[in-house]
Specification:
The protein has about 280 residues and is of the alpha/beta class. The chain has one domain: Rossmann fold (3-Layer(aba) Sandwich). Helices cover about 35% and strands about 20% of the residues. Helix 2 crosses helix 3 and helix 4 packs antiparallel against helix 5. The protein is globular and about 55 Å long.
Length: about 280
């Protein structure tokens, strides 16, 4: 059961076997499909403040990517994240869906839209990363420090460093969101935590953004790192049918920091996608 604004939503959840591992998912609501893909070190719980409202208009599927939450070990073959999502949609008999991903989840969502345009009715990229986009400065330094702490076997220090990352600091201003963030990061096992960056496709998405055919919304938090603003600008410029917006007063996790505003923006966009798809 999931509580949302006083309402109780009945969730169907399950685990499916996918490519010698397993995938945990939750599905709720009725209507056109809407898949939610979480970021690195997180899991499907990050959508706790969103599923209730979004499922009033959509069949919402939130799942744990391999290596996160209740799913099994990570897949290591090229395009693993895309294959996993396709297998999940096949299992649920969902032919076409809007795909929404945040941060690392945005990478998986973008790759899915490129490789399966016939199954993507819309694409939402939230503070998305982009494979092959340069890593440097204020984004790279905490990654190195976190990895060094893990190599010393100091998970507590790794968690502290990561939660103090500049892209996450503002989440502390939202007590409910920060409590949930702390819960997920502490639960994360930190095994092969950088392998998420290996979910590549060939040729890389960076070289074929103009091949995205789905209507696309690129969203970025006003207070997120310059890196993610630069990626958002690149995506908006190169993806043909793309609109963009900046959510004011939030950083890297706008769906958790200002869920009601986030939900409204997503539903405004998906409504237009569904109208266009039915014509």
């Amino acid at each position: 059961m999931l509580h949302d604004g006083g309402a109780i939503l009945t969730l169907h959840n399950g685990i499916i076997d996918v490519y010698d591992s397993s995938l945990y998912y939750e599905i709720s609501g009725q209507g056109p499909g809407l898949v939610l893909i979480h970021g690195n070190m997180l899991d499907s719980r990050m959508w706790r403040f969103n599923v209730g409202q979004l499922s009033r208009d959509h069949t919402v599927i939130a799942y744990d990517m391999k290596g996160y939450g209740k799913s099994g070990a990570k897949g290591r073959h090229i395009g693993a994240a895309v294959d996993d999502l396709r297998a999940l949609l096949d299992h649920l008999n969902i032919e076409k869906t809007v795909v929404c991903g945040t941060s690392m989840g945005g990478v998986a969502a973008l790759h899915f839209a490129l490789l399966h345009p016939e199954r993507t009715s819309g694409l939402i990229l939230v503070d998305s990363d982009l494979s092959r986009f340069a890593i440097s400065g204020e984004f790279a330094e905490p990654i190195l420090a976190t990895q060094q702490a893990l190599e010393r076997g100091d998970k507590r220090e790794a968690v502290r460093i990561w939660l103090d990352h500049a892209m996450l600091r503002d989440v502390k201003n939202c007590p409910a969101a920060y409590e949930l963030l702390l819960e997920m990061v502490n639960d994360y096992e930190w095994r092969d935590w950088l392998i998420g960056r290996g979910y590549l496709i060939d040729p890389p998405a960076l070289e074929r953004l103009d091949q995205v055919t789905a209507p696309t919304l690129v969203m970025v938090g006003e207070r997120d790192l310059q890196r993610f603003h630069a990626i958002a600008q690149l995506l908006t410029r190169e993806i043909p049918n793309c609109e963009s917006l900046v959510m004011e007063g939030v950083s890297h996790l706008p769906n958790m920091e200002r869920p009601e505003e986030f939900n409204r923006l997503v539903l405004d966009f998906t409504k237009r996608c569904c109208q266009s798809d039915s014509q």
